[in-house]
Specification:
Helix content: 25-40%
Strand order of the largest sheet: 2-1-3-6-4-5
CATH class: Alpha Beta
Low-confidence stretches: none
Shape: globular
Oligomer: single chain
CATH architecture: 3-Layer(aba) Sandwich
Distance between the termini: 30 Å
Largest sheet: 6 strands, mixed
Length: about 200
């Protein structure tokens, strides 16, 4: 599991927010934005995983889509393509790492950074999860979508959001704009989350 680390620069005894970049290695915007934020914010109370998948493709080094590898009730064995969820739930080291972090720190909010759909998707957290997604939408100007539009068996949002009722916000960033232009709105989102 190359380059999968947990970062913070402040008090993490009771962090309320976990931010994850690069579930998919071919969506590098999250890693860049998290690393840039950590250069400027020296007292963040949030936990960050800048790059979960450093394989530079949708799947990890074992050909598994990490966002289909969680032990959610809807996990299923699928064909081996770019959405392959592994031979069994939580088969991947990266998946187990995230499960351990969630179980250890019990975050109240989780934000994952993806691309390219330009939407704010949310799972779990009831009314609070929806309201949080709407606040993020107001900052970045993307619509809120409760459903991404296709099945996601074994997804992180299902496991952590729906089944554990932690508000999981999936921010799908625009991959067609210079990532530098995403710094202002995404940093504003991070700072808003710092208040929780």
């Amino acid at each position: 599991m190359n380059n999968t680390n947990l970062y913070t620069s402040g008090n993490t005894l009771n962090p309320n927010v976990l931010v994850i970049g690069c579930f998919h290695g071919d969506e590098p915007q999250g890693k860049f934005l998290i690393n840039e934020y950590l250069k400027t914010e020296q007292n963040t109370k949030m936990l960050f995983i800048p790059c979960l998948n450093s394989n530079n493709s949708r799947t990890n080094a074992n050909g598994v889509d990490l966002n289909r590898n969680f032990p959610a009730k809807n996990w299923e064995l699928t064909e081996k393509n770019e959405y392959f969820g592994g031979e069994k739930p939580a088969s991947e080291e990266e998946t187990r790492f995230v499960i351990d972090i969630v179980e250890k720190y019990n975050p109240k909010i989780i934000l994952t950074l993806h691309a390219p759909y330009k939407v704010v998707n949310y799972d779990g957290g009831g009314e609070f999860g929806r309201e949080l997604a709407e606040k993020i939408s107001e900052i970045i100007g993307y619509p809120v979508e409760a459903n991404i539009g296709y099945p996601t068996p074994g997804s992180f949002g299902t496991w952590a959001g729906i089944e554990r009722n932690i508000p999981v916000i999936t921010l799908e960033l625009d991959e067609e704009v210079d990532v530098e232009l995403l710094k202002e709105p995404v940093f504003k989102i991070f700072r808003m989350l710092e208040e929780y």
